[in-house]
Amino acid sequence: MTTPRPALRSQRLNQITHEPHGKLDALVKAHAPFETQASYARFVVAQYLFQSELVALYNDVQLAALIPDLAARCRAEAAKADLTDLDTEVPAPVAGAVKNPSQAEALGWLFVSEGSKLGAAFLIKRAVALGMNETFGARHLAEPAGGRAEGWKTFTRTLDGLAFTEQQEAEADKGALEAFNRFTVLLEHAYAAELA
Asked: Given its phi and psi angles, is residue 122 left (phi above 0), alpha (psi -120 to 50 degrees) or beta?
């Protein structure tokens, strides 16, 4: 029996990314980013790489017309500052970053990036045990202005309210799935690379 298609786009994106999300969670746990500061630094490298690839999307004028506070939502600079706190070099970009996606595809990527802020509520508690906080080493996990839940609700309300063609729906799905796959690649890269 097939699961009925959810009425809301955000619910559908949650549904179709359930499997890659679960795999990514398992992979993060396998790398034990909160066991040591060195392991945590590698996790921040992955976060920085992912966020830095999305800077163009967060600063896109047409996307900002849909989501007025979009540029302020970007966490690339926060992750970069965290790397400085951790005496970790800013990594070079990794080939394969998203390039010029359609608007619907870009929204799929942003859906994953914005959704990760909800999970960050749990991660920052683990980071605090390593001596990090929202002003040192864990800025990229800090609660956004206005709160995590409110920021997410505002984003998904906008996403769910857009009129999409069937092709745009497929592009949004593609973007969300690619975002999970990309973060997985970057996480593996960060833990495989010999960081100085």
From this structure: alpha
Whether 19 and 43 have beta carbons less than 8 Å apart is answered as no
Structural domains of the chain sorted by starting position, each given as residue range(s) with its CATH number in brackets: 36-192 (1.20.910.10)
> In this structure, are residues 43 and 33 in contact, taking their beta carbons and an 8 Å threshold?
yes
Q: What whole-number distance in Å separates Cα of residue 103 and Cα of residue 55? A: 14
**The token pair that represents 12 in the structure block:** 């559908």
pTM of the shown model: 0.94
pLDDT for 196 equals 43
| Alpha carbons 90 and 51: distance in angstroms, whole number | 12
The answer to whether 180 and 188 have CB atoms below 8 angstroms apart is no
Question: CA 148 to CA 126: how far, in whole Å?
Answer: 17
The residue assigned the tokens 């906080």 is 133
Residue 193, judged by CB atoms within 10 A of its CB (0-12, 13-18, 19+), counts as middle
Q: In whole angstroms, give the CA distance from residue 185 to residue 132.
A: 25
Q: For residue 110, give both structure tokens.
A: 């942003």
Could you give the CA distance from residue 24 to residue 125 in angstroms, rounded to a whole number? 19
Residue 6 binned pLDDT confidence (cut-offs 50, 70, 90): confident
pLDDT for 2 equals: 55
Interatomic CA distance for residues 16 and 179, integer angstroms: 12
